[in-house]
Amino acid sequence: MSEQFIVSARKFRPNSLASLLGQNAIRETLRQSILQKKIAHAYLFCGPRGVGKTSAARIFAKSINCENPKNDAEACGTCSCCQEFEQHSSSNIFELDAASNNSADHIRSLVEEVIYPPILGKYKIYIIDEVHMLSTAAFNAFLKTLEEPPAHVIFILATTERQKILPTILSRCQIFDFRAISNDIIKQQLQAICSSENIKAEDKALDLIANKSNGGMRDALSTFDRIASYSNNDITYNKVLECLNIIGDGDFYTLFQAIVLEKDSAKVLDKLDNFIERGFDTRVIIDGFSDFLRNLLIAFEPNTAKLLNLPPIQIQYYTELAQKTGRSIIYHALLRLQNFGKEYRYSNSKRLLAEITLLSLIPDYASNPYLQKVAAESPKEKMQQNNSERIQTPVAKAMTNIKVNPNLKPEDIIKETYSNILYEKEDTKADLQEEKTKTTVPSVKKEKIEPLPTIQKNGNPNKNQASQILSQTLDKEVKKKDNI
Ligand SMILES: [Zn+2]
User: How remote is the CA of residue 72 from the centroid of ligand 1, in Å?
Assistant: First the structure.
């Protein structure tokens, strides 16, 4: 009978403080509290999934119950308590999954149990996973015991959602915040497994697995197992792309090149078609391209490039491409792609939406002459155009040309304008008469051109007369234009 396959996440689960990866500060704090015998009665381990919260709780429980702990606070592994633990038959360490045991009754039965001392070892340790799933009634039933448990009881609560824990619970616990594990540490662990299990793997394939696990070791190991099986223990970068159904940076670079560097719309549409042919959903394509652009934007400044959590050679590639392109183009392309996410849900044709979105990223696409023509012919523009024509009548021309002295009274302004029209601008006067002739409706008998009243330039014209004449002249001009 063949040996039973054990998933890597279980097979390589940390079983000592030393093997707890990526949580150095927490590991050392726990170690010191064991050495100094300063054990709290309740702990809360918070953090994203798959970063070692439950493993840390088990290791800690095992170490504090060990009958012969080592000098570095590690469990001996040979005493009765340790052996029970290794055989998963511990009589003093209890695990409860609050996701499935979340009623007040479950907690009441637990509270009734805790008063009895442990059969073996010093402490009874209760590890309650996903504690945020407990109902309010269950929390309330738990509160009193959590505040003053018997001296032989320790609670270790674990959660991915710290914000859902009641403040009354938080204040009774010593809190440890677990953080996402760095890609480097995940990759080292994958390399160690490759050596131990005799699995071949390309370096950049392991980088990609680490990068796609978002800081979760359990997710990384589970992905690793899947790809090892798919690739028959020969893990390549392309196998990882296929297995995870993701598009590689090489493909996105081609798309980026077609959009930004070549501005080739046909190539853009062709590349999109190629992605769709390969079975990728438009959402996956656009999201992947957004990630690619985001990497470029972050890599633009060497100071922020370290945020990428990627191998140096890949960061260098992004930095060079970003600086060649310019930050503004990348930034605006990213903004446009964010809109795709909002419009996607309501779109009847996802493919068309993806096509338009990608085409709109081509730098010159928005300055299409057709769009400019449409804008120029908009009603608002037309109105403004008509107004500007009206202004160009001889009288109005003189009105617009005059430089208004702020110290002049209104009537003086009129006077000045009027005198400009009648005396100084002979050509304007001629224009005005010509205009009058031109604008007369042909079928109607030709209007007799009335001579404009004259006022001696050096005389002292009556102000009211000047204003009246000017206003009449302007009225006539405006009416004529309106009739056209
Ligand atoms: Zn032991």
Answer: 13
